[in-house]
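Fold this complex.
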Amino acid sequence: MIVLWIITGAALIASFFADRHKTFAAAARGFQLLRGILPLLLGVLALVSLILAAVTPEMMEHVLAGRGPLPFLAAFGLGSVALIPGFIAYPLTAVFKQHGASYAVQAAFITSLMMVGILTLPIEARFFGWRVSLLRNGLALFGAFLVAAGMTWVLA
Amino acid sequence: MGVGMSKQRKRPSVIGRSWPWIIAAVVAVFWVFGRISGGFAFGLKAGVNLREFLIEMAMVLPPMFLLVGLFDVWVPRHLVERHAGRHAGAAAIPWMVLLATLQAGPLYAAFPFAIGLWRKGCAPRNVFIYLFAFSAMKLPMLTFEVAFLGWRFSLARTIITLLVFIPAGMAMERLLPEAYSPPEAAY
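Structure:
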């Protein structure tokens, strides 16, 4: 996060000294893009806040720990829908692990969480179009399945 | 793609324009009600969730969009085309991964940059490799992952993910029509 600010700051300063007008144009361009997407972003995130409030970590733990295909499928389902920042997702997954979630379940949850975003589909579609967004998410889900399978194979 | 090239979108209906604010207001009201009544845990939780999302947005979106703007103004099309275009080789992949790793934030923060790359002639496969790398291979996040899930798990997951998602990016390019370009709406 800090690195991002440093890089952007440095780029901005360099740009400013190179060409002031171009820099203002760049800032205006960024602002215009941001303003265009902000309402949609706010709506989606507010919706996700409500959904996440209904699903407690205890409920997730209950479904994800244990054996058999059900926790595995639940990991994909939860991971695809939820929108959880990494610094919360990893400790959460560590809790699942302590309660007996397998490597495959952990990897499935983390990978689908990061790469698949069902709830953020409207945002993605605004940029890429629905067709590409659905395709990317479908492929990401399939990829997450391969990662989970690979983890079982490598770590077993 | 210069400034002002984006077409004016058709104005959406009143509901289409106001639903995000309505839902956000509902969450805010739930939260206030939770604070006052002291027993409405769901409302409090939703409010705290939204606050965390907003903080994350405030931390990540301004620099990401500034970068997109700078990229748009400064980086010439032929540079992107040469290093990451349709005829660029596998050397584009480490560039995409490096670019993604230097940035930060949730996946939706990467969409505008990805579109910017695409519009400047970056091959679709590289756009999607960038997106996948952005979501799965953050260096700061790796330290987190190691702390909570261990070296073996984190390293194996990162490497396997890379092996899976490079072909996935290529598959995306194959599955799209040759002339496909993303909608003008957001850009």
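Residues 23 and 29 of chain B are 10 Å apart (CA to CA).
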